[in-house]
Amino acid sequence: MPLKVSKRGQVPPFIVMDVMRATFEREAAGETVLHMEVGQPGTGAPSGVLDAISNTMHQDRMGYTDAFGLMALRVAIQGHYRRMYDVDVPVEQIVVTTGSSGAFILGFLAAFDAGDRVALASPGYPAYRNILTALGIEVVEILVGPETNFQPTTELINAIDGSLDGLIIASPSNPTGTMIDAQGLKALYDYCADKRIRMISDEIYHGITYDEPAETVAKFGPDAVIVNSFSKYFSMTGWRLGWMIVPPELTRAVECLAQNLFISPPAISQHAGIAVFNCADELDGHVVTYAKNRELLLRELPKAGFDKLASADGAFYIYADVSAMTNDSTLFCQQMLAETGVAATPGTDFDPSRGHQSIRFSFARDTKDMKAAAEKLIAWRNRPQ
Predict the structure, then answer these.
(1) d(CA 247, CA 218)
(2) Residues 112/118, Cβ–Cβ less than 8 Å
(3) Selecting from 3.30.450.20, 3.30.300.30, 3.90.550.10, 3.40.640.10, what CATH number does the domain 62-276 have?
């Protein structure tokens, strides 16, 4: 008889990782893949980071750092908030983490107990739901759609039965790319403060916006846990580096948890993080490419029948309603990959109840790849039946 397996580990898979495996198998067989499945920049770390690290590696032994991260990096993050948002964040509340994933684990453990109820928008990033579930925290899904730009509102939250202990928001959002404007963010922050609900604000796609810049919740008060990352705008996914801004009353709990769970974030990645704040010109060039890709796909995808699209205000995603094409987005994506070589992620990764009728396209790769993908999809959807 096999030994016990914890119920906490029995969470759904991160479906995009399964899609990635299928693309690797296709490429290993010598077939072409146009990658629109994964939320990862098609670029590596900026050249300034690589130059800085090549020097630092010979000068630093890369040992453990403070659990909260190198002070020089925390000060650099503090300066980032002053420049980007005109907000002065106390350095004592800035915590460097092992990716945003590490920040979510630390934030959830410090802010919530098993049995607490945390609300989040659906569709939304699946790891929120799955990490909360593994920690014994009840997930309360807020079903959102185009009528609220796929974002939660105070009215939707107020309609939830029972009390809440937490609310997770993301602006720009994964998978929809939609944003909450400053007025809406303040309304949500004030609502949570009034109802004693702990807000968790996912701001990892800040810097990648197309019409209006994203606003940070840090501007409205000290009570929210704010999570950011070096993966998206900063183009450093594999370096596994993120940060969080922690309310004063949670700092010691987060520190003790970080000491025991992670000891410290990777030292070499932290040195890279210090350097990347001097690479804005190169990074902003990536955003120019994303903007071109977004414009191209918003124009071309409707020609392939993908004409019900979220607004894609930021990040590098387009979320498409495919209910007129299929009732099984997983099978649809499998067929699309097999017949066109275009990889996308089924909406079931982001919305357990309605995602079978949606898919997510990522446009983080080269513009030529996006153009080729659009052409293949148009030909595929308009082929003789």
Answers:
(1) 10
(2) yes
(3) 3.40.640.10
User: 21 and 37 in contact (C-beta within 8 Å)?
Assistant: no
pLDDT in tens, 152-211: 999 999 999 999 999 999 999 999 999 999 999 999 999 999 999 999 999 999 999 999
pTM of the complete model: 0.95
Gap between the terminal Cα atoms of the chain: 52
Enumerate the domain spans of the chain: 7-45+280-381, 62-276
7-45+280-381 and 62-276 have identical folds: yes
Looking at the domain that runs over 7-45+280-381, which CATH code has it been given?
3.40.640.10
Mean pLDDT for 278-295 is: 97
AA letter at 63 = G
Cis peptide leading into residue 12 (ω within 30°): no
CB-based contacts of 9-14 (< 8 A; 24+ apart in sequence): 9/134, 11/130, 11/133, 11/134, 12/126, 12/130, 12/352, 14/126, 14/127, 14/130, 14/349
Rounded-to-integer distance, Cα 184 and Cα 369, Å: 36
